[in-house]
Amino acid sequence: MAAARHLRRACGTLRTANSFSVFRGLATVIPKVSQVDNSSDFLGKIPHRKHPGILHLKSVRLPPELVEVARFLVAESSMRSLEEKTKSLTNYLWSRKRPLEAEELRRKAHQVEQKLREEAVAYARQKDALNSLDEVALNSLDEAAEKKLRQNVLNVLRKTTYHWEALEYTEELSFLYMVARMDGVFAAVSRAFHEIQKRVPDFQPHTLLDFGSGTSAVSWAAHGIWGKTLTEYMNIDSSAPMLALAEKLMRGLSEDQQLCFPGVYFRQFLPVSPKVKFDLVVSAFSLNELPGHSQRVETVQTLWRKTDGFLVLVENGTKEGHQMLMEARDVVLKGMDKVVHDPREAHVFAPCPHHLPCARLSPDRPLPCNFIQTYVPLPFRWNPDKKEEKFSFLILRRGPEESEEPWPRITQPVLCRPRHVHVHLCCADGSLQHAVVTPKKHGRDLYRCARKSHCGDRLPVLNLASEPASEAEKAHTDKDQH
């Protein structure tokens, strides 16, 4: 009777203005979810809040010696309007898009020209009242009209096309970047490194290569996790002022001016020899600094050649950032490099639980796959106590694929409701699923694990027999992403 009353209430509510939210709750239920090993206590004495799929970090904090140097440099700076300039740079970097390729620009110019030509001819027809004998003239314009048409095409392209510009990191811009982005970069990279450490505790890297190293936040993050084994931190950045700033941050405020930890090197160019490999190779927020698609492909190939263990790529949590990572993923997985320097296979380690095309990159409605990391920002007066970094990341691994359970990744915030939990999953079959987990259908352990999970965690389930998210669910997801 209670179930019948509940169903009647739900059906009645579906006819109200709030029908969308109820339909969303009933849209897709995964009926046959089974946990890793329901017959044995797979959790052991581990609490549900620390189940094997937990990967998120509550909050990230910069090393105190790095914070101390940054505060000192800002206090000594004579730069005016630092807060406004910092916010402006942050917004600009977040909204930055990829450079438009020449072929795409030509195609767009042709479309604009065709549309304007048709409008010009139609206007000429109306103005001169052309008859059927003048049809030949309809497809051509006089010299003055052609010149005006070309100018109009250029004007339209200027207004509607994103104009990418290469950033020259001068001493001033490098300083602004440190103030605006060093803590956010550190937070995002720390989250990516934490996933490797948590899932592969035996991985003990000795060498690190950071492409587009900026303020060396990657080296600081890596030192905090693998400082006992890392002996070489190779920082590569094309900007000499940025490298000088990174070295100043690394030397700290000590009187002897020694680096805060040994083995750190600063270079403007990548090592040329393909035989020089690194256990851990990183590119954080650097792919969009390259002037085109071909340069990005060449750079990813070079970085992969130098990868002996893991390649970690991090970008903004936007459509542009996600698409650049999926572009890099295809370059590595499809083996687009003409010369094979290392026969070991490439595998996607995170966040994808599969090697299939990303389900979020649908042609009609592409959505970013992004995650959020909370961190304590640099202690400047305009910063709040806590901030969040929204980022996308990709970790590729070289070598034989490990026999690890293909657990699905949680791609959106978990919605906890009375006696049921909504989780959105990217599954091993390449699909996106919306699961409603209940203790009655799926077991107490899995239900509690789901309640304690967050976006970016892996849910310890197998045998997903489910339906893809409904159109209403996709529409709601699209709204959430924007």
Description:
- The chain has 482 residues and is an alpha/beta fold.
- The chain folds into three domains: 102 residues, no CATH class; 271 residues, 3-Layer(aba) Sandwich (Rossmann fold), CATH 3.40.50.150; 59 residues, no CATH class.
- It is 40% helix and 16% strand.
- Strands 2, 3, 4, 5, 6, 7, 8, 9 and 10 form a nine-stranded mixed sheet that branches.
- Strand 3, helix 8 and strand 4 form a beta-alpha-beta unit.
- The longest helix is centred in the middle third of the chain and has 29 residues.
- The radius of gyration is 27 Å and the shape is globular.
- The two termini are 41 Å apart.
- The N terminus and C terminus are likely disordered.
CATH architecture of the largest domain: 3-Layer(aba) Sandwich
Structural class: alpha/beta
Strand content: 15-25%
Mean pLDDT: 83
Q: Total domains, how many?
A: 3
Main sheet, how many strands, which sense, barrel?
9 strands, mixed
Number of helices: 14
Rg for CA atoms: 27 Å
Top CATH class of the largest domain: Alpha Beta
Relevant CATH superfamily of the largest domain: Vaccinia Virus protein VP39
Distance between the termini: 41 Å
Please tally the β strands and state the result: 15
Shape: globular
Instruction: Please bin the fraction of helical residues.
Output: 40-55%
Q: Under CATH, the topology of the largest domain is which?
A: Rossmann fold
Low-pLDDT windows of residues: 1-32, 36-40, 464-482
Q: Spell out the helices and strands N to C.
A: HHEEHHHHHEHEHEEHEHEEEEEEEHHEH
